[in-house]
Every structure is written in C-alpha cells, then in structure tokens.
Amino acid sequence: MSKSQLVEPIDTPTMPQVVALPAHSFSPVSSTGANAAESGSTGLQPLSNGAVNIPITPLAPPQFNPEILDEGLAGLQRQHLKLRAESIKQSSSLERVRDRLEMMCEATDRNRLAINCNAQEQQELLEDLKALGSKVKAIAIVGVSLLVAGLLLQLMMFFHMQHLLL
Predict the structure, then answer these.
(1) Tens digits of per-residue pLDDT, 61-113?
(2) Which residues on neighbouring strands pair with residue 46, listed in sequence order?
(3) In the prediction, which pLDDT does 48 show?
(4) Which of 5, 6, 29, 62 is geometrically suited to a Cys-Cys bond with 45, CB 3.0 to 4.6 A?
C-alpha cells in the first residue's frame, strides 16, 4: 500500500451552513451617551431585535504529505544522533572526572595517614631528642667538672713547684 493510498479524500459541501444567533447579543455603550442617561444603564445594550445570520463552514481535513513527514523524521533522527554523540562525550568526560576524583581521594587518604604517622614519628623523635638532650647535658657537666678539676690540679702543681724552687 503506498503512502498516497493511506489518506482518502472526504467530500465537503460547497455551500456554507447558516446559523441564527439569539437576539440577546450585547455591545458596550459609553456611560456618557444619551441612551445611557435615558435608560439608566451604564453597561451593555442590545445590538438588534432580530437574529443574526453567521455562515459556518465545516473544516476540511488536513492534507497528509509524506515528504514533509519524512523530512521531519530525518531531521529528528539527525538531532537524536547529535544528542547521543554529545551524551557519550559527556559520559566519558564524567567518567574521567570521577576517576580523577577517586585518585585524589586515595592520595588524600595516603597523605592523611602519612601525616598521622609522621606526627606520631615526630612525637617519638621529639621525646628521643629530649632524652638525648638531657644525656648530653649530663655529659657536658661531667666534662666541664673534669676540666675544672684538671685546671685546679695544674694550678696546685704549679704553685707547689714554685714553692719548691724558691
């Protein structure tokens, strides 16, 4: 079945139909006019005392053009392919960002652990340094006291020798 056989023409009448409207159609009238002052009305006045004839024609069915539909469908398919390509690019970009974020989180965790370990190690080193400092002070005191004792002994020997020689 071809596309032109899908739509069958519908017979439409050539004469328009006439519909009579009731006589109570109204139109706005200015409140400053003479009619408004006479009737005491400030709103709407009747248009006429008779019926109004308005022709009503039936709507013709829309014409089916398969070429326009095919062009629209091809355009939608092109747009769909473009959107799909953009979606794939964005998905891969988001995947790379997520991978980088995971790597940064892992590096941050490693650094945090290293900082905690370093802080503990630094605390231990500080305690060792304080202990070593107290040991060095003790050795320095012993060394200075030995130096002073040796100097005193030399002075005593010098005076004793000088006393003997004189």
Answers:
(1) 767 778 888 888 999 999 999 999 999 999 999 999 999 999 999 999 888 87
(2) 26
(3) 56
(4) 29
Pairing relationship of beta strands 44-46 and 26-28 according to DSSP bridges: antiparallel
Three-state DSSP class for residue 137: helix
Residues in the chain: 166
Closest by alpha carbon to 19, among 51, 46, 50, 47?
A: 51
Q: In this structure, what DSSP letter does residue 43 have?
A: S
Tokens (6 digits) for 53:
């004839």
Distance CA 39, CA 30 (A): 12
Which residue has tokens 């398969």?
66
- Residue range 118-132, pLDDT digits in tens: 778 888 888 999 999
Contact in structure between 12 and 58 (CB atoms under 8 Å): yes
* DSSP letter assigned to residue 5: G
Neighbours of 29 (CB within 10 A): 15
DSSP percent split of the chain into helix, strand, coil, nearest 5: 65, 10, 25
Record the tokens describing residue 9, joined without a space.
């023409």
92-112: b (≥16 Cβ within 10 Å) or e: eeeeeeeeeeeeeeeeeeeee
**Number of neighbouring beta carbons within 10 Å of residue 77:** 10
